[in-house]
């Protein structure tokens, strides 16, 4: 489900940008023609579909981009509707001004609610938003000011230029531009730097953070945006129905929003509109059909269709109607998506020379301490995984961290990169203290990492992966992205620099393929490219050699040497001791969380404590025990 | 003082209902990682089945057995048809899936039993006043039966091989498979337990709180709040969470406002989730059951 | 042969970790599989017990082809896997952990299960006084003993162990390997994956050295114990290529 249906990359983006123009035009024609072709009763259903489409669109963004389920979308819908109703009926505010106020109020509430709630994950967030929706219902019911159970009456149909939009056709046509504008904004957000970063968060949160993405901040932003969509829908709803009561915040309404988003395909912008029409049509149809089939059926019987639909979609079509559409299109056009030049799997050719790579004027001169680790300690319960580790890494050197299984290498590494909070000690990256902070803080200080078990962004292309790496080197925010123009030029620059980097690493031919379609070794290289896109001063590599073939290992080693020559500092945790001893300038050996040796590869190779740590100590062999116990003292 | 006692007593009996539903959440969540949003519907369905069975002339205990048995079948079918076929059960999928089942069950109840809320005949009608606190006999029944069922579930997890196997699946699924326990069967058993405890809760609650096709929503949510208060991993926590929630709700209704009763539960949920995700009674987020 | 593995390949998603491994363990033999981190030892065991599906090759257990069976079936067929990091059930008592170890034998007469349990406890007397303690409160060494005892409760033909000595004090390593030796002497077939090469050599009958998903050296423990290529396989230093050649010569 985490898979987003829209491609994220500039390359696909450009292709889909043309598609979007076509799509938007077709949709505009269809929507404008709808009220003239459909009988009034159907147009009435269409009005609700358009209204709900906006709320569903917001939810679809939240689920698709931020990967969060909200079961309280109707709560924001109701806040928008109530604010509008109060302003228009009590204070005779101009409806347009009122709706601006309504959206502002809703967004403020969403921000206040989101700040604590978005610290929760998964089930907990979903249930907490459900709780929020119910609290809104209860407060509306209890508030005399809001008319308690009967609600607020007499919200007039909107008037513009002395023209009242009170027929279904007129109201429908009034809503069409609003919905189209909403679609456009949503599309822009999905395609933007922010959308790309959120997509990355969805695929791998820790990897996105290591590239400098502040996930919490983005989540809150999307949550607020999603609430804004719901609130616009709420204001439109208030004017159309003329009455607003606590039912507007009702749970079943949140469920229909969810159904619309899921049916259309989570994260797809058009899907929400299609889903809204489908669900409203189904709702209307079932309301008529079921009482005919089951005499005496009254009430919300159409819900049975919703229930079955939700279940069936989740089991058989988790991508919603959008998934049907893309599958059908792929069938029609054959397998040409993979075309675009079948890239050579065998011989990548990163420029054959061995010159320095990615050197920069601004980089600290070789020998400057970039990473300083002092007294770093991690205890899990009673177990000390890392014990009082000291390590300094300078610009322009490769330092390796090795040790037997369970020695604490990975824990130490994760504390440096911010994935694990240390029990004690400090980690300083280029003068910034980063211990215990989220990985994006270290990224800002110029340190990023790769992962042992690949954390590739599976829903993006190779280029898309690398563009996420440019997150910190670009600036467009949510608003800029939604309004497109300011962000366009930057997007082009980001894409160009990403392509340049891919060419440099020999990944150019693969740029437009989905990253998950690459062979393992190339995926690993994509991770390195993604990390390099950040322009780091300190590169942290977690078992970069694991799973690579001999040739791939040699290529990677050469790449790392060239980066070192360019002034970068590199720290790697590695199982492949042979490769490490050949590559690193200095090697630190951990055993049981303690640094038992630190020195050049040659010193380490002949250190008796290291040999004992690797081969194990024969319990009967007391001299070996003695060596092992004496070893750490000597090494320090 | 009498007021307070009265409210606390009413809260305990209501809390006992929440506690049973909370046990259902815990049973399923620990084994399959799914928050079953249809848990409340299990209770509502049992109430309605019992009412209609009793209405068609069955004696009360028989009606109760019919209700529990039919809900158990529904729960097992749900696991086989909706949960087991899913290969990659993410949070999003599990939520929407169980929401779908919940919505479908709700509508089915509406179709079959109509929109009106009804109450089952109490096991023993009437009540008694003790020191100014009026007690309905049905409330005593709730406390007694819920207590027995909770004890039985506790005994199952602590003393029987099948129960220990479920705990093993919850704590170390890989090791559980290695000793030969089938995770699929464990999930089925968990849903069976959830169905049974939910159904008992529904039958018990019906005479006092009435049952309609919609009552599952609130019951389910309150049960979830109770389970979360207890850390979502232990039967004991679920029971304590249920009782605490019941009492708090009744105190709010008594001293602040009846209408705010529902808001309290969810406010509490949000506060607990944000401040103490391992629950009020939980120590760590370890799987215990 | 109690366990006969031919050309076994397995991995995770796109990453193939095992590239065609052969392994034989005769009845009453203790086979040690050693190798550096990331050599594929754990994946080998996971593929043997069905936790990771094999993508090629066959596994025969006492002559029966069990390739592709899930762990539940393999447990019943007589293969017990003592997993990496022990994975005892932490809130259950030591006794209950043992009871669950015999899950596949739950229809056996209770007396038979008690006999097996007593034998396991005789092997690890430290567990006896802790039977009613929650397994999570045991020390690392005791948890390892419990994990082995739990595996024995299934009355397996073949017991495979993943790094039984990791993180343990040398004295405990000795204790555990002594116990494994006794089990072998009683006729059980054992396959132990080990980091601690010296401890493994001390008790094993034969040793396979793995590197990068392949068995690069194989032979009886006494011969290999002094072979410099073993050290090379752990610490590198350019001998690895020779080692590969040697193993090619063997096959």
Automatic annotation (TrEMBL), chain A:
Record field: transmembrane: 21-39, 45-67, 74-91, 97-117, 124-141, 171-190, 222-243, 255-282, 303-325
Location of the region described as Disordered in the Swiss-Prot/TrEMBL record: 335-361
CDD domains xref list: TM_PBP1_LivM_like
Membrane topology: Multi-pass membrane protein
GO-annotated molecular function: ATP binding; ATP hydrolysis activity; branched-chain amino acid transmembrane transporter activity
SMART domains registered for this protein in UniProt: AAA
Gene Ontology CC terms: plasma membrane
Residue intervals of the ABC transporter domain: 371-617
Keyword list, A-Z: ATP-binding, Cell membrane, Membrane, Nucleotide-binding, Transmembrane, Transmembrane helix, Transport
Location relative to the cell: Cell membrane
Keyword Plastid: no
Keyword Cytoplasm attributed: no
Protein name: Amino acid/amide ABC transporter membrane protein 2, HAAT family /amino acid/amide ABC transporter ATP-binding protein 1, HAAT family
The species this protein was found in: Geodermatophilus pulveris
TrEMBL record, chain B:
Transmembrane intervals: 16-38, 58-78, 90-113, 140-157, 178-204, 224-248, 260-279
InterPro entries hit by this protein: ABC_transp_permease, BCAA_transport_permease
Membrane topology of the entry: Multi-pass membrane protein
Keywords for this protein: Amino-acid transport, Cell membrane, Membrane, Transmembrane, Transmembrane helix, Transport
Stretches of the chain forming a coiled coil according to its record: none
Entry's Gene Ontology BP terms: amino acid transport
GO terms under cellular component: plasma membrane
Compartment(s): Cell membrane
Gene Ontology terms for molecular function: transmembrane transporter activity
CDD domains, A to Z: TM_PBP1_LivH_like
Family from the record: Belongs to the binding-protein-dependent transport system permease family. LivHM subfamily.
Protein name: Amino acid/amide ABC transporter membrane protein 1, HAAT family
Protein species of origin: Geodermatophilus pulveris
UniProtKB/TrEMBL annotation, chain C:
A single GO molecular function term of this UniProt record: ATP hydrolysis activity
Gene Ontology biological process terms in this record: L-amino acid transport
Residue ranges of domain ABC transporter in the record: 3-237
Alphabetically ordered keywords of this record: Amino-acid transport, ATP-binding, Nucleotide-binding, Transport
InterPro entries cross-referenced by the UniProt entry: AAA+_ATPase, ABC_transporter-like_ATP-bd, ABC_transporter-like_CS, BCAA_Transport_ATP-bd_LivF, P-loop_NTPase
UniProt cross-references to PANTHER family, sorted A to Z: HIGH-AFFINITY BRANCHED-CHAIN AMINO ACID TRANSPORT ATP-BINDING PROTEIN LIVF
Family per record: Belongs to the ABC transporter superfamily.
Protein name: Amino acid/amide ABC transporter ATP-binding protein 2, HAAT family
Lineage of source species: Bacteria, Bacillati, Actinomycetota, Actinomycetes, Geodermatophilales
């Amino acid at each position: 489900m985490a898979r987003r249906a829209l491609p994220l990359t500039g390359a696909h983006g450009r292709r889909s940008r043309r598609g979007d123009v076509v799509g938007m035009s077709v949709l505009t024609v269809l929507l404008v023609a709808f009220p003239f072709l459909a009988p009034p009763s159907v147009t009435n259903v269409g009005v609700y579909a358009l209204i709900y489409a906006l709320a569903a669109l917001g939810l679809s963004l939240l689920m698709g981009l931020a990967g969060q389920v909200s079961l309280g979308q109707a709560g924001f819908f109701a806040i928008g509707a109530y604010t509008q109703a109060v302003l228009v009926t009590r204070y005779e505010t101009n409806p347009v001004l009122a709706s601006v106020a309504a959206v502002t109020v809703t967004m403020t509430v969403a921000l206040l609610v989101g700040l604590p709630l978005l610290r929760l994950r998964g089930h907990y967030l979903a249930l907490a938003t459900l709780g929020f929706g119910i609290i809104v219902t209860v407060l509306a019911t209890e508030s005399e000011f809001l008319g308690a159970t009967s609600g607020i009456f007499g919200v007039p149909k909107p008037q513009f230029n002395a023209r009242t939009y009170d027929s279904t056709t007129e109201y429908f046509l009034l809503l069409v531009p609003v919905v189209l504008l909403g679609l456009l904004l949503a599309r822009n957000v999905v395609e933007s730097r922010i959308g790309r970063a959120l997509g990355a968060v969805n695929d791998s949160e820790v990897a996105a953070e290591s590239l400098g993405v502040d996930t919490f901040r983005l989540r809150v932003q999307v949550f607020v945006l999603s609430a804004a969509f719901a609130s616009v829908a709420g204001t439109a709803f208030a004017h159309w129905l003329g009455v607003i009561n606590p039912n507007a915040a009702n749970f079943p309404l949140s469920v229909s929003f969810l159904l619309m988003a899921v049916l259309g395909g989570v994260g797809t912008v058009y899907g929400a509109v299609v889903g809204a029409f489908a669900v409203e049509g189904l709702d209307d149809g079932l309301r008529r059909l079921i009482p005919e089939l089951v005499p005496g059926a009254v009430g919300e019987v159409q819900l049975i269709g919703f229930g079955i639909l939700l279940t069936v979609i989740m089991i058989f079509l988790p991508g919603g109607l959008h998934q049907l559409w893309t599958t059908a299109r792929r069938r029609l056009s054959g397998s040409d998506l993979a075309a675009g030049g079948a890239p050579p799997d065998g011989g990548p050719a990163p420029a054959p020379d061995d010159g320095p790579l990615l050197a920069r004027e601004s980089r600290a001169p070789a020998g400057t301490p970039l990473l300083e680790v002092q007294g770093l300690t991690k205890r899990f319960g009673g177990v000390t995984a890392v014990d009082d580790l000291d390590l300094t890494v300078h610009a322009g050197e490769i330092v390796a961290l090795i040790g037997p299984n369970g020695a604490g290498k990975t824990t130490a590494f994760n504390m440096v990169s911010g994935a694990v909070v240390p029990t004690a000690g400090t980690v300083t990256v280029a003068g910034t203290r980063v211990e215990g902070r989220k990985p994006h803080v270290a990224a800002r200080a110029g340190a990023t990492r790769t992962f042992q078990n690949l954390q590739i962004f599976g829903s993006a292309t190779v280029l898309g992966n690398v563009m996420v790496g440019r997150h910190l080197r670009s600036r467009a925010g949510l608003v800029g992205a939604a309004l497109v123009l300011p962000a366009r030029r930057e997007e082009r620059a980001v894409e160009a620099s990403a392509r340049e980097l891919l060419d440099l690493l020999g990944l150019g031919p693969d740029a437009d393929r989905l990253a998950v379609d690459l062979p393992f070794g190339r995926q690993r290289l994509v991770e390195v490219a993604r990390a390099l896109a950040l322009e780091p001063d300190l590169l942290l590599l977690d078992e970069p050699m694991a799973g690579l073939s001999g040739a791939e290992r040699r290529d990677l080693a050469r790449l790392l040497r060239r980066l070192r020559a360019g002034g970068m500092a590199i720290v790697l945790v590695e199982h492949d001791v042979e490769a490490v001893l050949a590559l690193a300038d200095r090697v630190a050996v951990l055993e049981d969380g303690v640094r038992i040796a630190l020195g050049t590869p040659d010193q380490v190779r002949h250190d008796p404590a290291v040999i004992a740590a690797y081969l194990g100590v024969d319990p009967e062999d007391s001299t070996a025990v003695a060596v092992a116990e004496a070893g750490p003292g000597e090494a320090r | 003082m009498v007021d307070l006692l009265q409210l606390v007593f009413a809260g305990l009996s209501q809390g006992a209902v929440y506690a049973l539903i909370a046990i259902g959440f815990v049973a399923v969540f620990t084994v399959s990682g799914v928050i079953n949003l249809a848990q409340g519907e299990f209770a509502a369905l049992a109430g309605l089945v019992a009412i209609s069975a009793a209405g068609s002339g069955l004696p009360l205990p028989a009606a109760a057995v019919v209700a529990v048995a039919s809900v158990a079948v529904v729960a097992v079918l749900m696991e086989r048809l909706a949960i087991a076929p899913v290969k990659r059960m993410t949070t999003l999928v599990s939520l929407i899936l169980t929401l779908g089942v919940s919505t479908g069950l709700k509508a089915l109840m509406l179709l079959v039993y109509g929109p009106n809320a009804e109450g089952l005949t109490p096991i023993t009608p009437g009540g008694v006043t003790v020191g100014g606190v009026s007690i309905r006999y049905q409330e005593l029944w709730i406390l007694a039966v819920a207590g027995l069922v909770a004890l039985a579930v506790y005994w199952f997890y602590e003393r029987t091989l099948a129960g220990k196997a479920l705990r093993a699946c919850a704590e170390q699924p890989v090791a559980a498979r290695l000793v030969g326990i089938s995770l699929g069967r464990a999930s089925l058993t968990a849903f069976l337990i959830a169905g049974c405890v939910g159904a008992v809760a529904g039958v018990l609650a019906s005479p006092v709180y009435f049952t309609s096709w919609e009552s599952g929503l609130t019951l389910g949510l309150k049960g979830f709040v109770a389970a979360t208060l207890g850390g979502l991993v232990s039967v004991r926590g679920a029971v304590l969470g249920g009782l605490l929630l019941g009492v708090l709700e009744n105190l709010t209704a008594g001293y602040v406002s009846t209408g705010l009763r529902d808001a309290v539960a969810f406010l509490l949920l949000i506060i607990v989730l944000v401040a103490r995700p391992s629950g009020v009674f939980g120590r760590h987020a370890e799987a215990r059951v | 042969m109690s366990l006969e593995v031919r050309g076994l390949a397995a991995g995770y998603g796109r990453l193939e970790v095992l590239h065609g491994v052969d392994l034989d363990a005769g009845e009453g033999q203790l086979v040690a599989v050693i190798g550096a981190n990331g050599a594929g030892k754990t994946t080998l065991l996971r593929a043997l017990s069905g936790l990771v599906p094999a993508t090629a090759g066959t596994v025969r257990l006492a002559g029966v082809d069990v390739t592709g069976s899930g762990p539940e079936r393999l447990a019943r067929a007589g293969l017990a896997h003592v997993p990496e990091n022990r994975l005892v059930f932490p809130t259950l008592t030591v006794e209950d952990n043992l009871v669950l170890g015999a899950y596949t034998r739950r229809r056996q007469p209770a007396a038979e299960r008690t006999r097996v349990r007593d034998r396991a406890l005789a092997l690890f007397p430290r567990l006896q006084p802790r039977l009613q303690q929650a397994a999570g409160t045991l020390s690392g060494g005791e948890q390892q003993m419990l994990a082995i005892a739990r595996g024995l409760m299934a009355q397996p033909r073949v017991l495979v162990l993943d790094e039984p000595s990791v993180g343990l004090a040398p004295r405990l390593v000795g204790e555990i390997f002594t116990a494994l030796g006794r089990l072998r002497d009683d006729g059980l077939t054992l396959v132990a994956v080990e980091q601690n090469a010296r401890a493994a050599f001390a008790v094993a009958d034969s040793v396979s050295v793995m590197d990068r998903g392949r068995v690069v050296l194989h032979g009886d423990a006494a011969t290999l114990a002094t072979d410099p290529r073993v050290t090379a396989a752990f610490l590198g230093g350019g001998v690895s290529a020779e080692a590969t050649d040697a193993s090619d010569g063997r096959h």
